[in-house]
Amino acid sequence: APWPPPPSYRDEVAAVLTMLRRGLPDVACLLTGPYPVGYPHDDGSVVREAESAQVIGDYQRQTAEAAGCTFLDRYRLAGGAPAAKRWVATRPKILTGDYLHLTVEGSNRMGRAIADVILASYDGVALDAAATFALDRREGDR
């Protein structure tokens, strides 16, 4: 949504993570934040970027850290709000024309990027996260 989440959102996320930790205290936990999205103007002209994803990600980061979970900030790793416009314009598209949903190609690239971050962290390897999450680049461009 183009507007920020309600104040209760942070408490709702915290409640879910608390239940998770209570039921599975020794299990590794990863919370992935939202990726950049946008909303076309009513007349179909240039999209307005939804910065609510940043606020949601900030809330999720805070609650994940409090629950002892790792947080993966896809919004910041993707380069923030402007990524939505790039992802619709790139070929093949990363986001569908609704500026909200990943395409099949976008889902594949996002999955590989998340795997790269997780595996690099596990292996203790420094990772250029910005390059990994530059989803609008083709594989050979890395």
Secondary-structure blueprint:
Elements: H1 8-23, E1 30-32, E2 37-39, E3 48-50, H2 52-66, E4 70-72, H3 74-77, H4 83-89, H5 104-123, H6 129-132
Parallel strand pairs: 1-4
Antiparallel strand pairs: 2-3
What does this structure look like?
- By secondary structure, the protein is mainly alpha-helical.
- The chain has six helices and four strands.
- The protein has helices at residues 8-23, 52-66, 74-77, 83-89, 104-123, 129-132, and strands spanning 30-32, 37-39, 48-50, 70-72.
- It has a two-stranded parallel ribbon. The chain has a two-stranded antiparallel ribbon with strand order 2-3.
- Strand 2 and strand 3 form a beta hairpin.
- Helix 1 (8-23) runs parallel beside helix 2 (52-66).
- The longest helix has 20 residues, at 104-123.
- The model has no long low-confidence stretch (mean pLDDT 83).
Give me some keywords for this one.
mainly alpha, 6 helices, 142 residues
Give a short overview.
With about 140 residues, the chain is mainly alpha-helical. It contains six helices and four strands, in the order H-E-E-E-H-E-H-H-H-H. The protein has a two-stranded parallel sheet with strand order 1-4. Strands 2-3 form a two-stranded antiparallel sheet.
